[in-house]
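We read letters as residues; the fold follows as tokens. A sample entry reads:
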Amino acid sequence: TIVQETRLYDPDADLTRSMRGKEEAHDYRYFPDPDLPPLVISATDLDQLRAQLPELPDARQARFISEYQLSEDDAAQLTSQTEIADYFESVLEQVGGESRLTANWVNGELMSWLNRSDLLITQSPVTPTMLGQLIQRIRDNTVSGKIAKQVFAALWEGEGGGDVDTVIEKKGLIQITDSDAITEAVSKVIQAFPEQAEQVRSGEGKIIGFLVGQVMKATSGKANPQAVNEELKNQLLG
């Protein structure tokens, strides 16, 4: 039988001891207060109150998973704070899609910079509009994902007046998509690394990643990596 009582903790002895017994509920002799009328809350009242509540974290997380096709981990991180979730959805409004790419940037690059700078997301120098514009430039192949990180860093430092295109233009970061320029860069890398090129021809497909990296290095990261990969396969495998 569990004794109804209030116990006192004795820190010196590191134990508890009985302080006083507790009465049963009826022993308290509760009685209505004439100045407090009964409070009746109907189902309709509850529905109206629920409708006035903001979207709760668990519900928002579930919506992010179903609506944006995000992983549970990404959705959990994004909804850990209302401000982070609001930022994410503001970026999506700018981009008009690319929920996973946007989640990667918010959870990854943005949070990394915020943590290093000991800032809240509401204090971020890179606004949702800026990040949305940057993601659009990744989508339209103006910059690669790697170069986009350089643009983000510049925006964080206040360069370009917060305009992504201005930063890209001033720093000369526009991605190389011209087929002739990529063909030439690939040819030079193949000539510079004949052993690795021969390995690719012999069926060692993983080595092609090394050659892609060399082309990216030679072009200061400006070449379109997908185009480089295709051109390497074209020149080495026919």
Remarks:
- Strands lie at 5-10, 15-21.
- The radius of gyration is 30 Å.
- The mean pLDDT is 91.
- The chain has two domains: 57-171, 179-237.
